[in-house]
Design a protein that fits this description.
alpha/beta, eight-stranded parallel beta sheet, five-stranded parallel beta sheet, globular, binds glutamine, binds zinc ion, Cbl-indep_Met_Synth_N
Length: 762
């Protein structure tokens, strides 16, 4: 009989209950006990929702982050917070979020604590808190969190399978603060894992899921060896280990993974269906093979009939050894499709969120156990929905297909090389040296948000809403003129979000009401659902931009989100390659660029904030991704005349390794986050002999501190050591929407003063 299990459940709650409980606790408005109770209620509900599974994950719930939880379990905290005595949960948030000196003093403690560094969890949009190692790092078991949750699960009759991050992945996820070799810590780490597994065994645990997703990445000999060392040392423990890999293919790690001395292996069969048969040949005959057959990364229904066609022979061959699960933890999908009231019935019939994905698994389990006839009606319904989706005119537009087929290489080319474009643009724009600009958004004030929600609720009409937004635009144009900025922006008052704003106006996009997924801590995002061919029925930004331009003689930047970012921040269709979807987005955005140009807009910025996020986990696949991503950007940007200046913006500093792609985008100007890296990022541009203009961010918009002109002058001078001054722009690191006007005005005053001082030769 096939075993059905889950790897992890979304912890925020279908209505983001945990988010609200956390934030209320952090604001001091509710008690620790109330937060703990909310946590327990959510765990209980989520376990109930997983009823009928043979094994249910325990320990996947977290008040902030599962990697931070693991650090606490291993007694491994950053040096700067060691020796803290007080409430454990409070200390946990202190490590997660940092704490100001004032708040520390209120608790009778000592000096500010910096928040843990966060980074992307593999290729998802979830962010974890990076473990910090030094050569002196020690570990000490603290199993209290796991044991408490196990006891809770036990009391509720849950068939509990504790979930841990495995030792090798744990080391790989961290950073050595002193440049020491993290792998040298393995020897110290393993006894703590062994003790933990023994403790779990002593509490009646049979199976432990031990996550080692770095097995789907490229590993050098030392890291591969670490796997062998680790699992040989853990093999005498009395629990059975299910080694879980996900987010991609094992490829050259398949032999290693198959032969580690554990009781079972989970693989992502959605990413790698073709890898399963060869893996069977490698897998020792006593081992469990868990197949992730339901996609834990997207919102589409599984093709159950096709999955069964594929699974039935495997089930016959493997018998009891076959387990089924989602491809990865369901942390990365929304909770419950049934809550959605505004998605139409047809679209809904194509979708599955976490609860529906678990239903699919139960169904697959029944079909394998009792035969397909036992679930005939459900299978027929699934089939009908998939056929409807495959053939729906809402998904397939012949006009879009024809437009994509008609894309020529020429469309990705500029009229002239950068140097001649730059000369024409300079003649037209007449900008001073060190031209100043901002990245696009100005504060999203309470008035803006009120007007938008009143409009959405039908309390004000479209005309009133337009007037409210125009007033905000006029305010930001006036402010920029007074500040003396050179290239202005309209401020993006009318945009709720840089992806949603465009998605709402493009055909092929749908929006859920409750489709939240955790991004980090209490923060969630609601990615739009890109379900069909992308068409732009009409211009999306021209009216606002034209209005803004009418208020000033200075150049007004048109402001767009690029195709790669639209793609990477959406749930995208699984019935065609991502590259194909990206090309459709590129055509739609190219049309918008051309409309802006026709409306007299001389500078157009195409944001690609998420270009880097789309990089595949394996380096070997980077160039393929970057090729189509850059091409999509070029198709978007390059329909314009030489005189029209194209900007792009990226708000991250890790670009050294994608410099060639950035150069290939060939934007006339790139603005980029640099202030926190002290302009070191520009080394990459210098080494690459990057020929175009750069606006290295001169202050950090994430902080409420007002930067001083002197500080920015020093930064720009540093930049000028690497990039000729005539190619430098002066701008903040990113958009200003999260700041207050009271912060923005003084900060930009200082920034403009810095540019003026440099022009005057200081
Ligand atoms: N133009 C956007 C803004 O200013 C860019 C945001 C981003 O890069 N994340 O808000
Ligand atoms: Zn940015």
């Amino acid at each position: 009989m096939t075993t059905i299990h889950n790897l992890g459940f979304p912890r925020m709650g279908a209505r983001r209950e945990l988010k609200f409980a956390l934030e209320s606790y952090w604001r001091g408005e509710s008690s620790r006990a109330a937060l703990q109770e909310q946590g327990a209620r959510l765990r209980q509900r989520h376990w109930q929702e997983q009823a009928g599974l043979d094994w249910v994950p325990v320990g996947d719930f977290s008040f902030y982050d599962q990697v931070l939880d693991m650090s606490f379990t291993l007694g491994h905290l950053p040096e700067r917070v060691q020796g803290f005595h007080g409430d454990a949960l409070d200390n946990y948030f202190r490590v997660a979020r940092g704490r100001s000196a004032q708040a520390e003093a209120r608790q009778g403690c000592c000096g500010a604590v910096a928040a843990g560094e966060m980074t992307k969890w593999f290729d998802t949009n979830y962010h974890y808190i990076v473990p910090e190692f030094t050569a002196a790092t020690q570990f000490r078991l603290d199993a209290s969190r796991l044991l408490a949750q196990l006891a809770e699960a036990g009391a509720q009759g849950v068939p509990a399978k504790p979930v841990l991050i495995g030792p090798v992945t744990y080391l790989a996820l961290g950073k050595a603060k002193d440049g020491s070799n993290r792998l040298a810590l393995l020897e110290r780490l393993l006894p703590v894992y062994a003790e933990l597994l023994e403790t779990l065994a002593a509490h009646g645990v049979q199976w432990v899921q031990i996550d080692e997703p770095i097995l789907v990445t490229e590993l050098d000999a030392d890291w591969r060896h670490a796997f062998t060392t680790a699992y040989h040392q853990l093999k005498s423990c009395r629990v059975k280990l299910l080694l879980a890999t996900y987010f991609g293919q094992l490829q050259d790690n398949a032999y290693l993974a198959a032969n580690l001395p554990v009781a079972g292996l989970h693989v992502d069969a959605v990413s790698d269906p073709d890898g399963v048969l060869p893996l069977l040949g490698l897998l020792p005959a006593h081992k469990v093979l868990s197949l992730g057959v339901v996609n834990g990364r997207n919102v589409w229904k599984t093709d159950l009939n096709a999955t069964l066609d594929w699974l039935e022979p495997l089930a016959a061959r493997l018998g009891e050894r076959l387990w089924l699960a989602p491809s990865c933890s369901l942390l990365h999908v929304p909770v419950d499709l049934a809550q959605e009231q505004r998605l139409d019935a047809e679209l809904k019939s194509w979708l599955a969120f976490a609860l529906q994905k678990l239903d699919e698994l139960r169904l697959l389990g029944r079909a394998l156990r009792d035969g397909r006839s036992a679930v005939e009606a459900e299978l027929a319904e699934n089939h009908a929905a998939l056929v409807a989706r495959r053939t729906s005119p809402r998904v397939h537009s012949p006009a879009v297909r024809a437009a994509v087929a008609a894309i020529t290489a020429d469309m990705g080319r500029c009229q002239s090389p950068y140097a001649s474009r730059a000369a024409r643009q300079a003649a037209l724009l007449q900008l001073p040296a060190y031209p100043t600009t901002t990245i696009g958004s100005f504060p999203q004030t309470a008035q803006i948000r009120q007007a938008r929600s009143a409009f959405k609720a039908g309390q004000i009409d479209a005309a009133a809403y337009r007037e409210a937004m125009r007033a905000e635009i006029a305010r930001s144009v006036r402010a920029q003129e007074e500040l003396g900025l050179d290239v202005l922006v309209h401020g993006e008052a009318e945009r709720n979000d840089m992806v949603e704003y465009f998605g709402e106006q493009l055909d092929g996009y749908a929006f859920s009401q409750f489709g939240w997924v955790q991004s980090y801590g209490s923060r969630c995002v609601k990615p739009p659902i890109l379900f069909g061919d992308i068409e732009r029925p009409q211009a999306m930004t021209v009216t606002w931009t034209r209005f803004a331009q009418s208020l000033t003689d200075r150049p007004m930047k048109g402001m767009l989100t690029g195709p790669v970012t639209l793609l990477n921040w959406s749930f995208v269709r699984d019935d065609q390659p991502r590259a194909a979807t990206c090309r459709q987005l590129a055509l739609a955005m190219r049309a918008e660029v051309l409309d802006l140009e026709r409306a007299g807009v001389r500078v157009i910025q195409i944001d690609e904030a998420a270009l880097r996020e789309g990089l595949p986990l394996r380096r070997a696949q980077w160039s393929q991704y970057l090729d189509w991503a850059v091409q999509a950007f070029r198709i978007t940007a390059n329909g314009v005349r030489d005189e029209t200046q194209i900007h792009t913006h990226m708000c991250y500093s890790g670009i050294n390794d994608i410099m060639a792609a950035i150069a290939a985008m060939d934007a006339d100007v790139i603005t980029i986050e640099t202030s926190r890296s002290d302009m070191e990022l520009l080394d990459a541009f210098e080494d690459f002999q990057y020929p175009n203009q750069i606006g290295p961010g001169v202050y950090d918009i994430h902080s409420p501190n007002i930067p001083a002109a002197q500080q920015m002058i020093a930064l720009i001078k540093k930049a000028a050591e690497r990039i000729p001054a005539e190619r430098l722009w002066v701008n903040p690191d990113c958009g200003l929407k999260t700041r207050q006007w009271a912060e923005v005005v003084p900060a930009l005053t200082e920034m403009v003063a810095a540019a003026r001082a440099l022009r005057a030769g200081s």
